[in-house]
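Please describe what follows:
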Amino acid sequence: MNDQFQLPRAHQDEESPTGKRLAILSLAAVGIVYGDIGTSPIYALRESFHHQYGIEAVEANVLGVLSLIFWALILVISVKYLGFILRADNRGEGGIIALTALVSPPGAEPQGRRRKVMGLVGLFGAALLYGDSMITPAISVLSAIEGLEVATPAFQPYVIPITIGILLGLFAFQSRGTQGVGSVFGPVTMVWFLTLATLGVAHVIGNPSVFRAMNPYHGVAFFLENGFQGFMVLGSVFLVVTGGEALYADLGHFGTRPIRLTWFGLVLPALLLNYFGQGAMVLADPSLIEQPFFSMAPGWGLIPLVIL
C-alpha cells in the first residue's frame, strides 16, 4: 500500500490532479489534514455546556450553540481557509511560517517598520500554532479514552495511563513521515468520518427540526439571552475548528484540489451530521449532555467506537 501513497509536493506536480492520483491524494489528505478537526465532535458540544458557564441544555441554548458551531465551520473553514487562505501559498507551500517568509523574500530591500510589524505578527501566529499543537493531541486522545468510563467506571483509573501510552505511540509513528502516516491514517480516518455521519443520521431522523439551528437567528438569540456567559461559550465553540491550520500547513503535500474535495465531499457533511445528531439527542434527553458523543452509540458499539 505504501507504494501507492507517493506524495510529492503539489507545486512539483500538476496543479489539478485527476483520476487515480486525485483519489490517492484525497485519501491521504483525509488522514493527515483532517485528523485533528475530526476529533472535535468528541468534546466540543459537551464543553460548550460545561458547568462553569452555567448554561442549561434547554432547547433555545442547544439550538443556539449548534448555530454557532455551524457558522464557525462555514465561515472559518469553508470561507476563510478554503476560500481565501489557500490562495496565499509560498511557492506551493503553506502554513504560518511559509506565509511569514513572504514578508521578507530573498533579495528584498532591508526591512522597514511595516515588515518588522508583520514579521512579529507572523511569529505570534506561529506561537499560537505551537500552543494548539501542544494541547490538541492531549485533549483529543484523553476525550476519546474517557469513552471507556461510559462503558464502565472500572476503566477510570486507567484513562490517563492509556492516554499517555497512545500519545507516545503516535509521536513515535510520526517519524515515518507524511507518506507512512497517510497510508495508515487515511483509510482509518475515512472510516471515522463515515461513522460520525452514520451516528448523526441515526439521531437526526428522530428530530429533523434540529436543522433549524442553521438559521443564524438562533446564534444571535443565544448571545442576547445569556449575555457575557454566552460570549464565554465561544471559547468552547472554537474547539470545532481546531486543526483548521492543517488545511493550509499541508498545502505543499496535497495541493488545493484534494483538500477542498475532501472537505466539501466528506468531512464537512460528516461533522455537521454528527453535531446536529448530538443536538437532536440532547433535545430528547438533556441529561446526556455529560457525554453526548459516546451516548450516540448503541451499547454494543461503544467499545468499538472508542477503539476507532
About this structure: The mean pLDDT is 83. The chain has 15 helices and no strands.
